[in-house]
Amino acid sequence: MRLLNFLDVDGPAVALFFEGRWVNLSSADPSMPTNVQDMLVAEYDSLGKLANLASGAPQLGTQPTHILPPIAAPQKIICVGLNYRAHAIETGQSIPDEPLIFSKLSSSLIGHEAKIVLPSVSDQVDFEAELVVVIGKRGRNILAGQALEHVAGYCCGNDVSARDWQKRKPGRQWLLGKSFDTFAPLGPWMIPADAVPDPGNLNIQSRVNGKTMQHSNTSDLIFPVEQLICYISSVCTLEVGDLLFTGTPSGVGVARQPPRFLKPGDRVEVEIEQIGTLANSVVASE
Ligand code: ZN
Fold first, then answer.
1. Homologous superfamily of the 77-284 domain (CATH)
2. Please, which residues bridge with residue 187 across strands?
């Protein structure tokens, strides 16, 4: 079961893949939400409700072509740095004993097959394959044992990063280095949490032009999803639609010998077991 936002002939709509076919949930009934985030707010996200909606919805012949990010306007995008042991080591940093949290601006979100635009003010743009958690139930001070009840689903994400901004600007501009427009590819769809019983055991990889650059498993996360939700919600209320980028494995471009930064014409893929493959091509800014 996959939920995605797409651009239909008359505007944004939600498609659902269920029992081998794509259906258009938004055109089933004029009161239906036209994006996944509004579906989560309306609590349409359980497998039972989705299956029910699918039975009355018109079929789409094929997978929609103009795919939008599954969550386009989250209140927050929260990210975790150095959350895979081997990645902390490759970047020359010590293994954190508490999660290292930062943010990306939501204006950087793009969908599957949208272009990553290289800004003219950076020549060190890098890729980071990440499991992204979509929050489906509001909460503060969430216990680790109840954390997965607050998850609506999972997506593939690419935490695109301008390393020269992130590491070399005065004071280290993590927020800006990770927030250029198009620097948060997300998708292609959201897989409902009920269909991913163990987010802590998923193979994850990135490829550039078909060559595997990162290859790991979410069982290597230093802080698993449950602990991250517990830690972050001790500070702020998690809202429906908030996104959590859970960190990237080793193999990023900046840590390679020689470094491998993104260039126009590259194609980056992030593949996560049970979730799918998010693909984006890279272009120069105009
Ligand atoms: Zn990252």
1. Fumarylacetoacetase-like, C-terminal domain (3.90.850.10)
2. 156
